[in-house]
Specification:
14 helices, mainly alpha
């Protein structure tokens, strides 16, 4: 899809506290305060940028992966070192430029490609169908199916359940549900308490961005939908690794191609760490 390219947008909502100088007579309390200030200086809270980072794996994937994203887009725009105002400000500016609405209406004439993407992959052809799909992803999604299968397994032995012995009719299930239950059983201890909600939310955010380019939502309308996601995520997750691990498990549960799954795993691992990763400084909550 066209549209992932530069668009400078002013940075907002910065939390950065600089270190005060010290000398040999600095008290123990002063030193403790300086350590706290240094730690706080690395924390970035940006209410506009945050929702887009919930789908950051898709955008980084589109930019060619973490190494390409950091080296080609982020690093050249960042100044200073972690813990300084200049670093925090310039890092936010860089991510805002490339991750806030990365699919631009002007890069897709009449929204033709974006509309085709929503139609082909989501059977969405208008704003009403879009809103119905977004509501499903936010409130149910594949998490609902996961939760159903998980409950069945829990009632029949959990990770040790004998799926062949489960009375499918009792749970209004059929043989077509067996692969999903087998996947959950195989990865039983790998899911967080959030299940695979991260998989639903990442697609929710990505689809809003595509819909914006398609013309189904204007910027203000898109932001209203985007702002519904953080509280869902923050009620289930406390760190990015758990969030994106559930995203990867959700993608496999859905049936993503194995070759693509391997690439997404590598990209998630690479994008969550390092000096130029926003996830290093922006907490989940």
């Amino acid at each position: 899809m066209k549209g992932i390219q530069s668009n400078i947008i002013p940075a907002i909502c910065l939390l950065a506290i600089s270190m005060a100088g010290c000398n040999s007579n600095t008290s123990k309390q002063d030193k403790q305060e300086q350590v706290a200030a240094t730690n706080n200086a690395t924390i970035i809270r940006n209410d506009e940028l945050y929702p887009f980072m919930l789908a950051g794996v898709y955008f980084i994937h589109g930019y060619g992966g973490p190494e390409s994203t950091f080296d080609r887009l982020i690093k050249p725009a960042v100044q200073g070192e972690p813990g300084t105002d200049s670093f925090s400000t310039s890092l936010q500016n860089a991510y805002t430029r490339y991750f806030v609405f990365p699919f631009k209406p002007q890069d897709d004439k009449d929204g033709k490609e974006a509309k085709a993407t929503l139609a082909d992959y989501w059977n969405i052809h208008n704003t009403a169908e879009l809103e119905k799909s977004l509501t499903w992803l936010l409130e149910e999604g594949h998490q609902a199916q996961y939760a159903q299968y998980r409950k069945v397994l829990e009632e029949n032995g959990g990770a040790g359940a004998d799926i062949a012995a489960i009375d499918l009719a009792k749970y209004k299930l059929s043989k077509t549900d067996i692969p999903g239950m087998e996947f959950i059983k195989t990865h039983y201890t790998e899911f967080s308490n959030g299940g695979i909600k991260a998989w639903d939310i990442a697609r929710y955010i990505n689809n809003i961005c595509v819909a914006y380019q398609a013309g189904y939502l204007n910027r203000g309308e898109a932001m209203v939908w985007l702002k519904k996601a953080p509280h869902v995520v923050q009620s289930q997750y406390s760190d990015w690794k758990a969030y994106f691990n559930d995203f990867l498990l959700g993608r496999q549960f859905w049936g993503g191609a194995e070759s693509d799954n391997d690439r997404f795993k590598r990209e998630v691992a690479g994008m969550l760490e390092g000096k130029y990763s926003i996830y290093t400084y922006m907490p989940v909550k």
